[in-house]
């Protein structure tokens, strides 16, 4: 079926506005009919189409334009109904009977399935219109039909199957159009349109048409259509009227002599076109018209238009106007075009003498097609999503692929990548096919963030490797990021390693490539190469590599490199892995670098208290951490004191020397260093107090007696430790001592306080002694409870015997040891327990 060219009037429909209707030129057998004849009228039924031609022939077609046999024996393809052009065809609701009329004066009622109730009338006058009762097929309906010439005639079947005719109305001019719906009939004559009630057998009124001095309404065909129950559409010349058959109220009927129903014109519109046909499209109006003005260049008629308009708000508002490509339109007037329709399907049949075009609303596929052609792919996909993402012709994938191609052609690569993820989802083949399009434009970087990375949905390894290669060439940072983030199971790491090595051969070596290479080696479990690469990079990830993969065994000869890279981290790893990296190995590696060795041994000594390297640490502390040396010396007992003292002496570390000398018992030399080198009398006093040695105090007094300021301090603090007379007797006469009175007073106070404390302690001690002695005597004088549990300490027999014949004397001491008298040596009772006496001895 060929598609009619659809030209849209830009004045009434924006180029970006979605069209309402699509157009298909009817083909098949109807094309052969139109080659030989021309269409004069059409009647569309839900079952078929009836075409009347200029040669008086009636053709029966299906809705696709194929000929349907019209005779009951299926041998006759057409019906020669009239001698000249068929003016009008009418079909009953059931599609069982066809009626036609012509200027030859004949009226034909033809049964498609039976000859019963068929008629062939010769009226002898021009018959312009005919209408079958919609229920003509029903028995009991009266088998009625109407004809229109210069009067409106009703024919109905009577008793004995006779046909009776009744003149319903004498008309002015010809009855050029009739439309029958239920009990109402509308017809048009020169004065206007009348509506007749066949039940009441009365006219409901005349709808007069305005006459123009420039044109006569007789020259234009009136188009009548019952669009709905009791709704009549009229299109005549350039005016549209929509009328409603309304039932009068009971009050009106009782008070006035009027008909039960009346015709109420509710809408009247004037158009810019001569009207060839009209009909409803849901809540809108479809109009077939011809522009009033001829073509300015050729002087001939312009193309007809099919117009869709809104009219419910009392305004005629054009929604879309489509200019139709009808064959031979230049030679036709508005009366040469016909519009018939299938209201239930919203299908419109546009007829000219040599052409038939079918207009129908855009379905989902048509909308998607148009939106895609207009580049509105997002809207097209939204339309598909509303119907579940798929139709008979389109799917989210097919439209999405078109959209993807469009975005790539417009260089909108990021948007294309997002769309790719949206349409491909879990379809691996579709993913790979679309990714190849990004390969062609070298924009794999745009799609890299959206490719599936889940192992269950992964694509072919080659796809991921292509992405790596593009990043490798143009984006080193992005390449490293991919290596860090992507699961190595997605691709072949060996391939990427080879690509990186090849790239490094031809370009300047960048650290970022080496970092990526180290990660790839890790993925391959080639940790030794990864370690070498990280060390070459001086990258801190080397430490994580060692701990994560237990690589202590390979770093024996690289300890210095690791410490040089990051001393703290390296030493932390070495200390943590001391069971795998022996301290001897580290010591050997660092033997030429005392500072690193010190830091390592310092950390090692804190977790290993064996003190094996404390002697070496003394020397290293003296060299690199003098402030820690004294504390170390005090906390450790695992260093050679003499060696430590030699180190301190060589470096003149006097506080450390004082401690070491004190530790080996050379307190007098230590005190001398405090006095002479450190010149700290307070420390000297503390030192003497700590060791509490009378000789030390004597030496301190001897060395400081000639220094009045030192004498003052001694006077204040010596009273608690030694006899103050030792100091006072050595003070030279005439020596000026600052604060002598206060110092002496404090010294005497301290000395008396000490004496008082000693006397008090003595009294308390004596009192405690006598109290305890008295308590002891009382306890020893108490009786002892002897039970069955007591055993003889010699024979281990029970002390208490129930059989008195075997009983013997007992001896029980306060220490609770018990004996049979005969078990004692020589049977002699002693004052002291023999067991306890033996223990004391």
From TrEMBL:
Instruction: Please list the coiled coil stretches.
Output: none
Compartments, record wording: Lysosome
Q: Does the keyword Disulfide bond apply?
A: no
What are its GO biological-process terms?
A: cellular response to starvation; endosomal vesicle fusion; macroautophagy; protein targeting to vacuole
Task: Return the PROSITE patterns for the record.
Answer: CHCR, WD_REPEATS_2, ZF_RING_2
Key words of the record? Lysosome, Metal-binding, Protein transport, Transport, WD repeat, Zinc, Zinc-finger
Name the Pfam families for this protein.
Beta-prop_Vps41, TPR_Vps41, zf-RING_Vps41
Q: Which windows of the sequence hold CHCR repeats?
A: 570-713
Q: Name one GO molecular function term.
A: zinc ion binding
In the record for this protein, the WD repeats are positioned at 79-120
Q: Does the keyword Protein transport apply?
A: yes
Q: What is this protein called?
A: Vacuolar protein sorting-associated protein 41 homolog
**Source organism of the structure:** Pararge aegeria aegeria
Q: What's the gene?
A: jg21265
């Amino acid at each position: 079926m060929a598609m009619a060219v659809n030209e849209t009037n830009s004045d009434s429909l924006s180029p970006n506005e979605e069209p309402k209707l699509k157009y298909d030129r009817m083909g098949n057998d109807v094309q052969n009919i139109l080659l030989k004849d021309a269409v004069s009228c059409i009647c569309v039924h839900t079952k078929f189409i009836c075409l009347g031609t200029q040669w008086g022939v009636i053709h029966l077609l299906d809705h696709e334009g194929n000929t349907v046999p019209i005779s009951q024996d299926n041998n006759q393809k057409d019906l020669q109904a009239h001698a000249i052009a068929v003016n009008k065809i009418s079909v009953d609701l059931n599609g069982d009977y066809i009626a036609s009329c012509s200027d030859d004066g004949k009226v034909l009622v033809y049964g498609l399935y039976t000859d019963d109730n068929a008629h062939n009338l010769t009226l002898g006058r021009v018959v312009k219109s005919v209408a079958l009762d919609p229920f003509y097929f029903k028995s009991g309906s009266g088998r009625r039909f109407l004809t229109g010439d210069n009067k409106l005639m009703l024919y109905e079947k009577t008793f004995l199957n006779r046909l009776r005719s009744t003149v319903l109305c004498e008309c002015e001019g010809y009855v050029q159009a009739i439309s029958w719906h239920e009990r109402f009939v509308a017809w048009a004559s020169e004065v206007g349109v009348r509506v007749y009630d066949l039940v009441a057998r009365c006219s409901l009124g005349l709808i007069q048409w305005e006459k123009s001095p420039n044109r006569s309404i007789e020259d234009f065909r009136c188009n009548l259509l019952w669009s709905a129950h009791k709704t009549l559409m009229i299109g005549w010349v350039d005016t549209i009227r929509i009328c409603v058959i309304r039932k009068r109220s009971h009050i009106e009927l009782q008070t006035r002599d009027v008909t039960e129903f009346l015709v109420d014109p509710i809408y009247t519109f004037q158009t810019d076109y001569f009207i060839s046909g009209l009909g409803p499209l849901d809540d809108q109006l479809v109009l077939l018209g011809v522009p009033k003005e001829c073509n300015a260049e050729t002087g001939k008629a312009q193309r007809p238009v099919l117009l869709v308009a809104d009219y419910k708000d009392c305004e005629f508002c054009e929604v879309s106007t489509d200019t139709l490509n009808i064959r031979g339109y230049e030679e036709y007037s508005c009366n040469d075009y016909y519009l018939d329709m299938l209201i239930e399907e919203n299908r419109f049949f546009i007829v000219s003498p040599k052409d038939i075009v079918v207009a129908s609303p855009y379905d989902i596929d048509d909308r998607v097609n148009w939106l895609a052609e207009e580049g509105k792919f997002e809207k097209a996909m939204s339309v598909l999503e509303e119907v579940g993402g798929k139709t008979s012709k389109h799917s989210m994938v097919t439209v999405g692929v078109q959209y993807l191609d469009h975005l790539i052609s417009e260089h909108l690569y990021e948007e294309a990548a997002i769309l790719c993820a949206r349409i491909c989802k879990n379809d691996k083949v579709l993913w790979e096919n679309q990714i190849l399009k990004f390969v062609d434009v070298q924009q794999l970087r745009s799609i890299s963030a959206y490719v599936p990375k889940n192992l269950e949905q992964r694509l072919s390894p080659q796809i991921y490797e292509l992405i790596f290669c593009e990043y490798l060439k143009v984006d080193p940072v992005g390449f490293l990021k991919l290596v860090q983030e992507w699961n190595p199971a997605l691709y072949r790491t060996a391939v990427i390693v080879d690509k990186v090595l090849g790239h490094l051969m031809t370009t300047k070596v960048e650290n970022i490539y080496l970092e990526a290479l180290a990660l790839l080696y890790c993925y391959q479990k080639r940790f030794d190469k990864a370690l070498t690469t990280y060390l070459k990079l001086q990258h801190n990830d080397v430490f994580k590599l060692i701990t994560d993969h237990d690589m202590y065994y390979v770093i024996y000869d690289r300890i210095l490199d690791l410490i040089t890279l990051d001393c703290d981290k390296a030493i932390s790893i070495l200390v943590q892995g001391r069971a795998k990296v022996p301290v001897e190995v580290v010591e050997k590696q660092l033997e030429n670098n005392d500072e690193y060795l010190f830091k390592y041994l310092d950390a090692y000594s804190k977790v290993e208290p064996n003190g094996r390297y404390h002697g070496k640490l003394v020397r290293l502390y003296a060299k690199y951490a003098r402030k820690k040396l004294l504390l170390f010396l005090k906390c450790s007992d695992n260093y050679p004191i003499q060696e430590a003292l030699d180190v301190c002496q060589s470096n003149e570390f006097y506080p450390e020397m004082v401690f070491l000398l004190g530790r080996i018992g050379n307190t007098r030399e230590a005190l001398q260093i405090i006095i002479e080198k450190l010149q700290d009398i307070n420390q000297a006093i503390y030192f003497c107090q700590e060791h509490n040695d009378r000789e030390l105090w004597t030496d301190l007094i001897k060395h400081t007696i000639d220094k009045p300021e030192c004498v003052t301090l001694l006077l204040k603090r010596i009273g608690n430790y030694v006899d103050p007379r030792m100091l006072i007797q050595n003070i030279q006469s005439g020596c000026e001592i600052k604060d002598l009175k206060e110092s002496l007073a404090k010294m005497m106070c301290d000395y008396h306080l000490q004496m008082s404390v000693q006397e008090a302690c003595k009294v308390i001690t004596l009192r405690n002694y006598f109290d305890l002695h008295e308590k002891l005597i009382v306890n020893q004088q108490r009786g002892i409870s002897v039970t069955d549990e007591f055993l003889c300490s010699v024979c281990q027999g029970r002390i208490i015997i129930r059989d008195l014949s075997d009983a013997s004397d007992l001896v029980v001491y306060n220490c609770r040891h018990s004996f049979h008298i005969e078990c004692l040596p020589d049977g002699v009772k002693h004052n002291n327990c023999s067991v306890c006496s033996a223990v004391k001895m």
